[in-house]
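quick one before i forget lol
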Amino acid sequence: MPLGGRIYFMNDKEKPIGVFDSGLGGVSVLKELLTYLPNESFIYYADNLNAPYGTKKLWQVQDFALTVSEFLINEKQVKAVVVACNTATSAAIKLLRSSFSVPIIGMEPALKPAITAANGKGILVMATPMTLRESKFQELMQRYGTGSQIITLPCPGLVELIESGHIEGRELDTYLKNLFADIDRSEIQTVVLGCTHYIFIREQIARFFPGDTRIVDGNLGTAKQLARVLAKEQLLIKELSGTDRERVEWFASGDPAAILKMKNLAFN
């Protein structure tokens, strides 16, 4: 039976996939999707009018996620939605799945592969305060974190730095130095990037840790899960639909100038 009881039609598989985030962080997910699903087309929606999500109330993020999903599903007729934001996933994924019949794919910090790679050594999970606070992450910790040395590190203000263009330089270095000041970095084997924004500063984060420290994220896992769901629902496209640039349509709820920055991140 189709996911959520929906009846799919032949032309449904030709529809695009919706991807959204509060800003440019989800572009890191989109890049993975473009590579892993080379025949699909996408609509990327940056809810930059309401960014960042991580500092908002739970009900606000739920409202934002519902509004964006309704636009993607009802107006743009996407065949699936990827919530390319750990915070929005934590706050709203259950609500979205109960509200819409199309497949809804969320993000989660890559805790399971991090534990496998860490071999009992320390794991540092970097995420927004809301992601770490909400029940989805707590359930993840209960499922995979027993017996592991896991440090959770909320990173307030980091999304705002990245959104404002500080993906390198003194201001970012100062922020990270202060953030890691109380962490014994020599004991950390794996760093989990629990926010899609953080992937754009992966190299800057890595500089603060020993050379053999692994930096992991959940983007590939999300792409694989989307592919599995689309295949199950017979919604995968088998024919190439165009170049990467032709395969993405862009929207922003706030400043449309941000779209150019996101395009540069996606295709360069």
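fyi The longest helix spans residues 58-75.
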